[in-house]
């Protein structure tokens, strides 16, 4: 299954960059299974459209604000994913919502959609993440590995 | 009785912008532009190595990553008086031009066309008539009856499924939408084709930059692309020729589709040449350096006060004190402690949030001025300045656009009509056509230089003890971008980015003069205060990108869009 794992977020806003940081952690701990590609998408939206071409599965990793304790991890799948991005859950939600809607319109939206979200604590300017999110990311990375059927290095 | 409307946030832009308008007798009489996020890049860069600043600055925004990387390395090179090898200039220039063309195409079709094009009306179009209309405008091979019919069916399925997706927030059927169903279908079809073509522009940037988003090939002093015509892991002849095919595909779309669509839609909406001029001081900076000292440029820059092209004052290089010493930012109406007008090198940023105060502080954006005056930046400023400077390509395409619009509108449309809401779209299309020629020119210059045996791509920077200052200037897709750096003993002491949207979306300045968005909205007719499409048309015409103007996430759960009429 051709899979794109897309980490999104702004590295300059502390916990906001958790989606990108998750991919870095994953890459250091697990062997990348065949057909799986990781992409640091930053805060881009439509610019990522061509990256979806020919994929069977899209796994997005992002911060998701649901009012849970910081560091809590959630997995969503299928139609829940675009629905989540249409609500205001992430500061770059408009970009990703547009990306998914446009991909659907032109027929390049991967059949399988998965979102791993982590609850942020600090979104102020800065490079380091909160302890809670750093801890939560370990759990997220394990869940991601199970999703992708990845073996530890 | 005045009606007050608040649009918060303005959608189909990057970042978070709030616009308030006071409406009297169907027209906007007063406007406020408020950036709702706060950026603090200087806090992150303090005490860091200037050679790595660009890696951080390109994370400010998800759309303009490349431009912040470019301006950052230029600021350090400017402080050090460091020369940049020719190959590096040409490679950077190609990335800049390709990125800008991509930005202009995406801005027109995907971020603003839906203010003018009624997608729902396109369902009523006759594909045959649409093809006849399209073929009267250009020779684009994808203007066939079959393709227009396919698009209509696709739209029918999409809207029939109840999932409007990207089209969900449109003002379909609004009285200010006046295009024929056929023109709407034509534009919607090209909307989809534009998605395809913008990838090619992205490919150019990623082949040269190693990755998009976030290019990886820059270095203070040049680029990190090794050029070796034989080795497959470097920039080879094969790759350079592949770039050429991408450049030509892009150029064909710009000339035969984008340029023509803007002229046709502009002619239909010629009434909008009367609105949205706003601040008519235009500032544009020279770009596309063609020598190692960054003193000779392919694109001229300058300043036009009061919309009068005869008063054009050229800006010849990055060392020009007119620009280097003339820029100030005011925080009188911004959420920072105090009330001052300061040069970016002298600024400090201490946030102080008050509520939204109509006559006091109401934005996270500062108000920049040039020699005390607000200025409009962006493709319109760029085209007017390059036209006034006598740039041949700009004259050719601007004259062509005006002739085409005049012929379609069946009345003369003069150069002055560009200074308007719809004129900003026309200027952007003119600039895209100019940039295609620039892209070809830079590609040829790179090939010729390699053929001369010059394979150098980087000069090593050396940092002196003591304090040095520099400015990195770039004519970005949204206008003049400047990064201001103070380096002490090899480390960053201060860093400020004065971004294009700061110039355009800034609040009232130290003299209480409104910024370009604010001034441009005054006089705009509003058919229905509950559906302020006309406000969005003018604001979107600037291509707002607020993520880098400011950046802090809104902490509360809010609806995606709130329009409050009170």
Low-pLDDT stretches of chain A: 88-93
Tally of strands of chain B: 17
Could you report the average pLDDT of chain B, rounded to the nearest whole number? 90
CATH architecture descriptor of chain B: Orthogonal Bundle
Distance between the termini of chain B: 11 Å
Spatial order of the strands in the main sheet of chain B? 3-2-1-17
Query: How far is the N terminus from the C terminus of chain A?
Result: 21 Å
Which structural class do the helices and strands of chain B define? Answer: alpha+beta
What number of domains of chain B? Answer: 1
Largest sheet of chain B: 4 strands, antiparallel
What oligomeric state is this?
heterodimer
Radius of gyration of chain B, in angstroms, nearest whole number = 23 Å
User: For the largest interface in this structure, which chains are involved and how many residues does each contribute?
Assistant: A-B, 36 and 45 residues
In the CATH hierarchy, what is the class of chain B?
Mainly Alpha
CATH class of chain A: Alpha Beta
CATH superfamily of chain A, called what?
HybD-like
Question: What is CATH's topology name of chain A?
Answer: Rossmann fold
Could you explain how this protein is built, in words?
The complex is a heterodimer of chains A (153) and B (566). Chain A has helices spanning 18-29, 80-86, 93-105, 131-148; strands at residues 3-8, 36-42, 57-63, 73-77, 112-118. With 153 residues, chain A is α/β, with parallel strands linked by helices. A five-stranded mixed β-sheet of chain A has the order 2-1-3-5-4. In chain A, α2 (80-86) packs across α3 (93-105). The longest helix of chain A is centred in the C-terminal third of the chain and has 18 residues, at 131-148. Chain A is globular and about 40 Å long. With 566 residues, chain B is of the alpha+beta class. Chain B has one domain (3-535, 552-565): Cytochrome-c3 Hydrogenase, chain B. In chain B, 41% of the residues lie in helices and 15% in strands. Chain B contains 17 helices and 17 strands. Chain B has helices at residues 41-45, 53-57, 65-80, 86-112, 119-122, 127-137, 145-160, 181-209, 237-268, 321-324, 379-388, 392-409, 421-451, 500-505, 516-521, 533-541, 546-549, and strands spanning 3-8, 17-24, 27-35, 218-219, 222-223, 282-284, 287-289, 297-299, 301-304, 313-315, 327-330, 341-342, 367-370, 467-476, 479-488, 491-498, 562-565. In chain B, β4 and β5 (222-223) form a beta hairpin. The radius of gyration of chain B is 23 Å and the shape is globular. Chain A binds chain B through residues 10-13, 16, 40-50, 65, 86-88, 91-92, 94-95, 98, 100-102, 104-106, 123-127, and chain B through 11-12, 14, 16, 37-41, 43-44, 56, 59-63, 65, 106, 110, 154, 158, 163, 165-166, 192, 195-196, 198-199, 202-203, 212-214, 547, 551-555, 557-560.
């Amino acid at each position: 299954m051709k899979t794109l794992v897309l980490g999104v977020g702004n590295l300059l806003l502390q916990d906001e960059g958790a989606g990108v940081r998750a991919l870095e952690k994953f890459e250091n701990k697990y062997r990348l299974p065949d057909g799986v590609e990781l992409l640091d998408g930053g805060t881009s939206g439509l610019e990522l459209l061509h990256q979806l071409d020919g994929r069977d599965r899209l796994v997005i990793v992002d911060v998701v604000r649901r009012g849970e304790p910081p560091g809590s991890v959630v997995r969503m799948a299928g139609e829940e994913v675009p629905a989540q991005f249409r609500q205001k859950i992430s500061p770059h939600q408009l970009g990703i919502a547009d990306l998914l809607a446009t991909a659907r319109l032109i027929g390049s939206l991967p059949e399988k959609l998965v979102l791993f979200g982590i609850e942020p604590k600090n979104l102020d300017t800065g490079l380091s993440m909160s302890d809670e999110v750093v801890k939560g990311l370990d759990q997220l990375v394990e869940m991601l590995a199970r999703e992708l059927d990845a073996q530890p290095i | 009785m005045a009606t007050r409307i608040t649009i918060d946030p303005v959608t189909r832009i990057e970042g978070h912008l709030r616009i308030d308008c006071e409406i009297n007798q169907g027209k906007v009489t007063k406007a406020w532009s408020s950036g709702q996020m706060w950026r603090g890049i200087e806090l992150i860069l303090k005490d860091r190595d200037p050679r790595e600043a660009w890696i951080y600055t390109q994370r400010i925004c998800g759309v303009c990553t490349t431009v912040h990387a470019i301006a950052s390395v230029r600021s350090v090179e400017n402080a050090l008086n460091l020369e940049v090898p020719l190959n590096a200039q040409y490679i950077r220039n190609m990335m800049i031009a390709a990125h800008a063309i991509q930005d202009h195409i995406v801005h027109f079709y995907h971020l603003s066309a839906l203010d003018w094009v009624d997608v729902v009306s396109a369902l009523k179009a006759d594909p045959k008539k649409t093809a006849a209309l399209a073929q009267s405008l250009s020779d684009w091979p994808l203007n066939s009856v079959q393709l227009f019919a396919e698009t209509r069916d696709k739209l029918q399925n999409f809207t029939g499924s109840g999932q409007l997706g990207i089209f969900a927030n449109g003002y379909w059927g609004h009285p200010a939408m006046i295009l024929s169903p056929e023109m709407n279908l034509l534009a919607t079809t090209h909307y989809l084709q534009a998605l395809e073509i913008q990838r090619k522009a992205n490919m150019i940037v990623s082949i040269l930059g190693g990755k998009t988003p976030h290019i990886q090939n820059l270095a203070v002093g040049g680029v990190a692309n090794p050029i070796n015509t034989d080795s497959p892991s470097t920039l080879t002849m094969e790759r350079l020729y592949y770039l050429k095919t991408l450049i030509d595909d892009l150029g064909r779309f710009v000339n035969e589709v984008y340029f023509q669509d803007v002229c046709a839609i502009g002619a239909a909406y010629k009434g909008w040449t009367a609105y949205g001029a706003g601040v008519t001081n235009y500032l544009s900076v020279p770009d596309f350096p063609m020598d190692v000292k960054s003193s000779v440029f392919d694109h001229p820059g300058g300043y036009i006060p009061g919309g009068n092209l005869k008063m054009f004052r050229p800006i010849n290089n990055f060392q020009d004190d007119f620009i280097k010493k003339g820029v100030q930012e005011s925080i009188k109406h911004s959420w920072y402690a105090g009330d001052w007008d300061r040069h970016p090198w002298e600024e400090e940023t201490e946030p102080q949030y008050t509520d939204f105060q109509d006559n006091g502080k109401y934005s996270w954006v500062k108000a920049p001025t040039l020699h005390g005056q607000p200025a409009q930046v962006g493709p319109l400023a760029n085209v007017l300045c390059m036209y006034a400077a006598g740039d041949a390509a700009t004259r050719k395409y601007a004259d062509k656009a005006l002739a085409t619009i005049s012929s379609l509108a069946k009345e003369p449309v003069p150069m002055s009509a560009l200074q308007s809401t719809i004129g900003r779209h026309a200027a952007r299309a003119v600039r895209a056509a100019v940039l295609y020629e620039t892209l070809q020119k830079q590609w040829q210059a790179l090939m010729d230089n390699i053929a001369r045996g010059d394979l150098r791509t980087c000069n090593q920077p050396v940092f002196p003890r003591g304090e040095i200052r520099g400015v990195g200037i770039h004519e970005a897709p949204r206008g003049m971008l400047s990064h201001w750096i103070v380096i002490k003993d090899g480390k960053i002491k201060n860093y400020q980015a004065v971004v294009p949207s700061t110039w355009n979306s800034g609040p009232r300045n130290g003299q209480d003069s409104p910024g370009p968005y604010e001034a441009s909205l005054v006089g705009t007719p509003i058919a229905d205060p509950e559906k302020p499409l006309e406000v969005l048309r003018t604001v979107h015409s600037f291509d707002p990108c607020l993520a880098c103007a400011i950046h802090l996430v809104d902490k509360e759960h809010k609806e995606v869009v709130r329009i409050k009429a009170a």
